[in-house]
Design a protein that fits this description.
Order of helices and strands: EHEHEEHHHHHEHEHEH
Helix content: 40-55%
Largest sheet: 7 strands, mixed
Bound molecules: adenosine monophosphate, manganese (II) ion
Structural class: alpha/beta
Strand content: 5-15%
Oligomer: single chain
Number of helices: 10
Shape: globular
Distance between the termini: 28 Å
Radius of gyration: 18 Å
Strand order of the largest sheet: 1-2-3-4-5-6-7
Length: about 290
């Protein structure tokens, strides 16, 4: 039987809606054998996920999804097998979380000016004292009837040229990869088909990513269409990046992304889990 890998998922430690333990339980029931918890800019949920994984017989990969600014673009880089106790990584992520706190206040001020009061405290209530992001604002604005769905809130309020948009100043690509590598991890470009870039610019991003030691790219993602899988599969083939597969699951409210439903990787592509660094990291993590 083939092992089912899902190397991208979220819990309440960032903008997911399931606890880390419930996420792991649901993944196991859905047939996932190896799950990476990759919350935005935090490894807070990893200990809980790991304990739950031991109980239900699933292999948990400790991970993180780092927010990066690259040439005016926000890019997400997934770190797999990062040691949550690593101080360099933690210091770096701590800086990103401080920016998130300030940005959340600024989003609140801008929405207030646009006639939407109370959004900062509303979003904070959804974040429950953990990391805060635009998704928490979206949940609150749906709750007060400003839009019918999270997607609509993003479209109307939270993206470029909309009243609640605040440009991000996230980590540089170099720094993000240095933190991931110092913490023993492998770096993977998340959901590449989501970035609004030309093939040339994506090629430049990948070139710099590889120069910094990045090894993988998500070919199969919950947000990729079959055509995206083909296109990014070809990119992986031509650049030599290892292929990864992750749902980017955020919780049962998003019915269009479910655990255990991803298609397989194109058969000829070398997978990130078939590499020596992956096997070495698995051995280290099991012994830790
Ligand atoms: P942030 O890192 O706080 O800027 O928020 C980014 C997160 O918002 C992503 O990881 C998604 O979970 C969510 N997101 C971004 N764009 C959309 C969208 N158009 N519709 C729904 N959720 C979105
Ligand atoms: Mn998210
Ligand atoms: Mn992402
Ligand atoms: Mn994600």
């Amino acid at each position: 039987m083939t092992i089912q890998y899902d190397l991208h998922s979220h819990s309440v430690a960032s903008d997911g809606t399931l606890s880390a333990a419930d996420l792991v339980g649901r993944a196991r029931v859905a047939g996932v054998d190896v799950l990476a918890l990759t919350d935005h800019d935090t490894t807070d949920g990893v200990a809980e996920a790991r304990a739950a994984a031991l109980r239900v017989g699933l292999i948990l990969v400790p991970g993180v999804e780092v927010s990066v600014s690259w040439n005016g673009l926000t890019v997400h880089v997934v770190g797999l097998h990062v040691d949550p106790a690593n101080e360099t990584l933690e210091r770096g992520l701590c800086g990103l979380r401080a920016f998130r706190e300030w940005r959340a206040e600024e989003i609140g001020r801008r929405l207030e000016k646009a006639g939407v009061p109370g959004a900062h405290s509303g979003a904070k209530a959804y974040a429950q004292g953990r990391i805060i992001g635009r998704t928490h604002f979206a949940h609150y604005l749906v709750e007060c009837g400003r839009a019918p769905s999270v997607r609509d809130v993003f479209r109307r309020y939270l993206v470029h040229n909309k009243p609640g948009y605040v440009p991000g100043q996230w980590a540089s690509l170099e720094d993000a990869l240095e933190w991931i590598h110092t913490a023993g991890g492998q770096a993977v470009i998340a959901h590449p088909a989501r970035y609004r870039v030309t093939a040339t610019k994506l090629g430049r991003l990948i070139g710099e990513f590889r120069e910094c030691g990045g090894v993988g790219i998500e070919v199969v993602s919950g947000s990729h269409s079959p055509a995206d899988v083909q296109r990014i599969g070809a990119v992986a083939r031509s650049t030599g990046l290892l292929a990864s597969r992750g749902s980017d699951y955020h919780g049962p409210e998003n019915p269009w992304v479910e655990l255990g439903r991803l298609s397989g990787l194109p058969a000829d592509l070398p997978a990130v889990w078939d590499s020596d660094p992956w096997r070495a990291a698995q051995t280290r993590w099991r012994a830790a």
